[in-house]
Amino acid sequence: MKKLLKIFAVLLLVAFVYLRIAIYPQLDLISGFSAKSVASGHFIDNRSLETIQKGDNDIPKVDWATNEIDENGKFATSKVYGLKTRKAIYREGLGATLINDDFEVSKPYNVPKRTFLKNNLPYPYGNNNPIDTVFSNIDYAKLQKTVESAFDKEGEKNKRTRSVVVLYKDKLIAEKYAPGFTATSKILGWSMTKSLTATYFGILQKQGKIDIMKPAPIAEWKNDERSKITINDLLHMNSGLEWEESYTKISDATKMLFVAQDMTKPQIDKPLVGKPNNSWNYSSGTTNLLSGILRKQFKTHQEYLDFWYSSLFDKIGMNSALVEVDMAGNFVGSSYGWATTRDWAKFGLLYLNKGNWNGEQIFDPSWAKYVATPTNSSNGLYGGHFWLNANGKYPDVPRDLYHCSGFQGQMVFIIPSMDLVVVRMGLSEDFDFNGFLREIILSIKK
Is 140's pLDDT higher than 60? Predict the structure, then answer.
């Protein structure tokens, strides 16, 4: 009996040490993710706590968290086994922000000024009902079957698709939503937000206000080798800077998103571990650094906030679009962009039409070519904050496809040679995107 007690005591000690060393440091991130997810999903898209916990937070370890919503205070709190309570506050126009104990909740703050597009045009160039256009070269039965196949059947939880929108020749030809989601549901794009962030550089370049080939304006880099890093290198994720992009452990990316007060700074402090323009490394820190560079282009914080909406979202009628901010008031350009599926499709259509939106040129046509051109050392996978099919990642899809991509399989596919935009939003990357796109393309006869 004594031996059993000793063995039990040793096992208990080992378990405690493991929890203290391996698990406890992660609790800050787990409860942080959960609080932010609950606050965003509830206050931005009106989802119930139950829906968020069964869907958005149905992730290993994140599902350990216990969550509460304060409707009057407009915030959410989360903790894991009673430990590491984190809080995310919601502010209209800014979305949800994960805060720490030092954050001054009562401090005044700026919000973006919006001008919502109102016209009498049908979707996608307006927000009225789309016109029922019938193309003689489309097999609609096959198209509909393909779209329906992207969704789980009742009782299943495999593909976890939430929505699909297909645009062809500027017209909506297919659309479907999972139960609980509609055309007005706002969905987090995660890293698709990176493609939004890059677009602002294209807009500023067209306006003659920035030269992306010049060195990045980072004071901390002026006296060392990092001074050679250009904005172009950052847009290509090819700066040579150190960065660990992992979401299964404590990493540069998770510490930035769930601990940092100012998310534009973590990448600044990293050393060079490769040569600029010859060391591709995917980095959310780089994108948030670019958000900080964008902020420096304006005299006031208000101008920075307004620009993200007035120059893009409000121009093309992405009325639902929202990019959330960090504690320092910077847009989290790496990860926190929200929009309806239809509005995400509008963004894809803008690129399909090379920056032209119903007659107005938002960015120069050359910018669409720029973002879809392979980055050095990326093996044809990546361009200017867009993913590519140049190396045939999707073997049954045209090589000119390029796309926005986000965690859990958020996708905006742009296929110029097919005049096609396909959006899929969901909760799982375990999805046959190649087969899905192949069958959509096969439904369109040339």
Answer: yes
